[in-house]
Amino acid sequence: MTRTYLPLKGDKSQGIAALSRVSSGAAYSDAVRIDAGVLSLLFVSGKTGTKDGALVGRSMREQAAQALRNVIDSVEAAGGGLQDIVRVRIYVTQIDSASIRDVHAVRAEVFAAGQQPASTLVRVDQLVRDGALVEIEADVVIAK
What we know:
Mean pLDDT: 90
Number of helices: 2
Radius of gyration: 15 Å
Oligomer: single chain
Structural class: alpha+beta
Shape: globular
Strand content: 25-35%
Distance between the termini: 14 Å
Helix content: 10-25%
Number of strands: 8
Strand order of the largest sheet: 1-2-3-8-6-7
């Protein structure tokens, strides 16, 4: 078994003001890949709806779509694909009918019917990124 830590890309503070004063930046990896025989497990850190260091919008739908795109980018960088995502955890700062519909609409646009990963949706008080409404993390199984 081998373990590979995939470093964060871009700004090491990840656009979080409190981390801009820390010389090492964020103290976590973009993802961790475990190679074990005929498959690899990939654990992708939580992604918010940012692009080029800035939030993409102020709506749940906009941020959820970008957060999921950021997860997929990390999966693809590690050699996997959309079909390899087996579980997602979605953290949102608001749960109401519109927010739930928006999150599920984004998921339905990305994951084909019958190929949706296991999922958890959790409301949290706040995310570390100011203005962030959603954060998504994923577990991935990649066949070699």
